[in-house]
Every structure is written in structure tokens, then in C-alpha cells.
Specification:
6-stranded antiparallel β-sheet; 4-stranded antiparallel β-sheet; about 50% strand; Thiol:disulfide interchange protein DsbD N-terminal domain-containing protein; DsbDN
Length: about 170
């Protein structure tokens, strides 16, 4: 029985190793503030940690070329929040001419940070979406496409302050 178990573990170990090789990127998703008010505009932080020797492409792509797949974020729309503007890369973006695309591409290494501004519209916002990306090796340019669902958690929403009531002076 032990030998069968050992054989199964031995046969499956390359799969576990391959899974680690194919996942050179990890994502984290959070709100910049943990306590907000209804109506307040806040920043969402969308961060990729990329292993050394790999890169992803920015969310901004070169419109002059049919190039690599840019990093793209899609948010599941609902009435608890609204997007303000587009997702923006905020960490260093490196421009590189790539012969295969016959033009400049925009790469991100190490820590790739993106931000999205939103307005909170309800006491219990449900903020979720998906990121799609292409991660490539720096050495030979081999790429793996990936997708990951995300949910922004940990927001505590306070009630919006009531507008001040102005009362006319009392006449005696």
C-alpha cells in the first residue's frame, strides 16, 4: 500500500512542479481605505507580483501595432459602486521595441501596480471583476495567457452625512 502511494506521489510531482512554473505571477486586490462613506470616491489597488525573469504588458497598449495582449480589467457592474475613469498603470512601464510586433511594447517587471477610482453608492458595495493578462519570459519571449477573478473585501461603509438643515430665525 505504501509503495502504491509513493508511486502516485512520484507520478504527480511533475504536475505540481509544472503548475509552479506556469504561474510566475500573483495578484492582490484591495481598496486604499478600509472605512468609507456612501458617495465617497476611493482608489482600488490592483497589484501583480511578477517573478524575476518575466514581464507582463501594461494596460496601455501601443495603438500603432497589433501587438501583445495588454493587461485588462473588467468589473462586474452593479448599483453599489460606479467606475470613475479607466484603470491606470502607476508603477514603472518600460518601452521595448519588439521585432515580432514591428513596434514598441510597454512592459512591466517586478511589482506591477494599477489603480481604478470608484464612487461608493451603497452601504454594502459588491466590487468584483476579472483581470486578463499575458505573462512572458524575458529570455525567449514565450508567453502564457492568464485570467483571474477578484473580489474587493474589507470595506466598512459609514452612512453618508445628512445635509445641514438651515432653519429661519425665530421671530418674537
Amino acid at each position: 500500500m505504501k509503495s502504491i502511494f509513493a508511486l502516485v506521489v512520484w507520478l504527480l510531482s511533475p504536475i505540481a512542479t509544472l503548475a509552479q512554473i506556469i504561474k510566475p505571477i500573483t495578484w492582490t486586490f484591495s481598496a486604499a481605505k478600509s472605512t468609507v462613506k456612501v458617495g465617497e470616491v476611493i482608489r482600488l489597488n490592483l497589484t501583480a507580483t511578477i517573478k524575476s525573469g518575466y514581464h507582463i504588458y501594461s494596460s496601455v497598449s501601443n495603438p500603432k501595432i497589433e501587438g501583445p495582449l495588454p493587461t485588462a480589467f473588467s468589473f462586474h457592474a452593479n448599483k453599489t459602486y460606479e467606475l470613475i475613469g479607466q484603470v491606470k498603470p502607476v508603477s514603472q512601464v518600460k518601452t521595448k521595441y519588439e521585432e515580432v510586433f514591428e513596434g514598441d511594447t510597454y512592459l512591466m517587471h517586478g511589482m506591477a501596480r494599477f489603480v481604478q477610482m470608484i464612487r461608493i453608492l451603497a452601504p454594502q458595495p459588491q466590487i468584483s471583476g476579472m483581470v486578463s493578462y499575458q505573462v512572458c519570459t524575458d529570455d525567449d519571449g514565450e508567453c502564457i495567457s492568464g485570467e483571474e477573478d477578484f473580489v474587493i473585501r474589507g470595506l466598512s461603509v459609514l452612512a453618508a452625512s445628512a445635509p445641514a438643515v438651515v432653519r429661519p430665525p425665530v421671530k418674537h
